[in-house]
Amino acid sequence: MLDFGRATHPRSNIQKQTSDMNTILVEGINIYAHHGCLEEEGRIGCNYVVDVTMETDFTEAAKTDDLTKTIDYVIVYNIVKAEMAIRSKLIEHVGQRIVDTLKKEFAAIKVLSVKVSKINPPMHGHVDKVSVVITG
Fold this sequence. Notes:
Layout: E1 6-8, E2 15-17, E3 22-33, H1 39-44, E4 46-56, H2 59-64, H3 73-84, H4 91-105, E5 111-119, E6 129-135
Antiparallel strand pairs: 1-2, 3-4, 4-5, 5-6
């Protein structure tokens, strides 16, 4: 009989418990925002892409088909959109605000990673994007 709940090494009596940790990814949130240190960045704006990775236990939601037992990614999107609408000089700052707000809204998040990418940043040369990743 197969036991998918425990993995046993063939040469030992050590058993590994499977984790009740799952991952939810909300990727490619495209937002036009006005972040940057330069005055013209505040006026003109730029394209950004935000990716959110959350580790949580959604076992109960998977069993019951109940949205209240998991993280609602529509709310995640709305938080990202709201925080990106508030001007910051640094994408590090707006990324940290997103992390803080998500953790405040969803106590079930065990590990959180937010990647904020600025597309075609104004630099003296061709750069596709500049990104920061904040883990909380």
